[in-house]
Amino acid sequence: MFKKILYLFALVAIDFSIATAQTIKPQEYIEMYKELAVREMKRMGVPAAITLAQGLLETESGNSDLVKKSNNHFGIKCKTSWTGEGVSHDDDAAGECFRSYKDAEASYRDHSNYLRGTDRYASLFKLNPTDYKGWAKGLKKAGYATNPKYPDILIKNIEQYNLQQYSLEAANDVPKIETDKYEDDKEPPAIKPEKETSLGEVDSKVLVAGNFINGHKYINATKGTSLLAIATENDIDLSKLLAFNDLEKDGILINDQIIFLQKKSKIGDRDFYIIQEDESLYDVAQKNGIQLMPLLSYNQLTQTTAVPVGTKLYLKPTAETQQAGAIKEAAENTSTINTTAKTHAVQPKEGLYSIAKKYKVSVQQLREWNNLNTDDLLQIGQQLIVSK
Q1: How far is CA 33 from the centre of its chain?
Q2: Is residue 113, in this structure, part of any structural domain at all?
Q3: Count of domains in the chain?
Q4: Ramachandran angles phi, psi of 219, nearest 5°
Q5: Which helix (DSSP H) or strand (DSSP E) does residue 387 occupy?
Q6: Which end of the chain is more exposed for a tag (fewer CB within 10 A), N or C?
């Protein structure tokens, strides 16, 4: 949890630096946004390598005027269907309208939605997600950019900075989505409460307008419905459906229930929620589109804790829970220290990110243990210390 918080702080920091005159290096851009690219590949199937390569090109490694004033990392223009904010920017013509986002994460998410929901890009999703050359050429053919060298630039970025490692990391988790049933620009509408108390809590009967809670798609499943039937109907693996909804086993629903078709977030879209009568902690997690374990952690509770009606439950980490998480993580790390250093021989197309994931350490630890800089490129067969 503490690492996630640090990552979010880092995103805020880099968004701030983009808004200033500070120059960002390509490797710094990659470090800041690789997690978003991997997450979007797992959510929508757009190769992480392609996403990062486009981001590097379209933002000039995070230094372009457009990204500084709009957080638009992919040069997506407004189009007639866009209902969000926009900024004026000179491109093919003077004063064209480009989409504007509140942060980089919103831009990365819209980029995935845009490619998935636009008919002319449908053929790309029939390619192997690790075929970065096919994707690069396909984007140009479909009209994403007018520059004839666009595919070559993307391919160069991928190979120069070993971006393929991020696609390989997420390749086994790419979802199967029927592109013709997916629509672009369908952002979750704002939650509008029917009534609001003096404390600002939302009435429990108000879940969300439309089919999204906290940005994640759900259905209202009725009592007696089989979870297997829901998974089959929505073309989702049963194991993933159970994981999305914090469930351990298949079965028949004994009550009407919210069932998510996408992985829930670890934080809510508001700070807290007031628990209502006959609500369990699980109910609160579902109603707010948040994973159960983080919810328990933020409030220092267990699944069996009895929580009185009217209790304020935090949906985001507080300073107190951040400190508790840091202490716990430090204790866990101390208990698992190994006095014998382990090494790893670098394999073809491996990078620090994938190696760190494999050995459950951070990229920064690998750099420190092996005296590497951010610009260092790994060599096949190179021996890296991966544990201390």
Answers
A1: 10
A2: yes
A3: 2
A4: -130, 155
A5: strand 383-387
A6: C
> What CATH number has the domain bearing residue 11?
1.10.530.10
pTM above 0.85, yes or no: no
With beta carbons less than 8 A apart as the criterion, state whether 258 and 218 touch.
yes
* CA distance linking residue 24 with residue 8, whole number of Å: 18
Greatest alpha-carbon pair distance for the chain in Å reads: 64
Q: Does residue 46 contact residue 116 with C-beta atoms inside 8 Å? A: yes
- The gap between the terminal CA atoms of the chain, to the nearest Å, is 23
pLDDT of res. 333: 54
Mark which of 181, 200, 221 sits at the end of a domain. 181
Residues 6+ apart with CB under 8 A from 121: 115, 138, 139, 142, 144
Q: What is the pLDDT of residues 331-365, one digit of tens each?
A: 555 544 444 578 898 888 788 888 888 888 888 88
The letter for the amino acid at 362 is: S
Which residue bears the tokens 């629509």?
183
The answer to whether residues 142 and 71 touch, using CB atoms and an 8 Å cutoff, is no
In a domain, 248, yes or no: no
CA nearest neighbour of 283 among 327, 227, 245, 231:
245
DSSP 129: T
Closest C-alpha to 180, from 233, 137, 229, 119: 119
Full domain range(s) for residue 362: 337-387
Of these ranges, 47-61, 81-95, 237-251, the one predicted with the greatest mean pLDDT is 47-61
Strands 383-387 and 342-345: antiparallel
Tell which residue, 326, 226, 228, 261, has the closest CA to residue 2: 326
DSSP 8-state code for residue 180:
G
Residue 7 lies in a domain: yes
Residue 171 corresponds to which tokens in the numbers above? 């390749």
Output DSSP code: residue 208: -
Task: At 8, list the tokens.
Answer: 């979010």
Most confident among 48-52, 88-92, 170-174, 356-360 (mean pLDDT): 48-52
Q: How does the average pLDDT of the chain come out, rounded?
A: 80
- 10 Å CB burial of residue 165 (0-12, 13-18, 19+) is buried
* Cβ density class 360-382: b for 16+ within 10 Å, e for less: ebebebbeebbebeeeeebeeeb
**Span 114-140, pLDDT tens digits:** 898 888 899 999 999 999 999 999 999
CA distance 182 to 362: 36
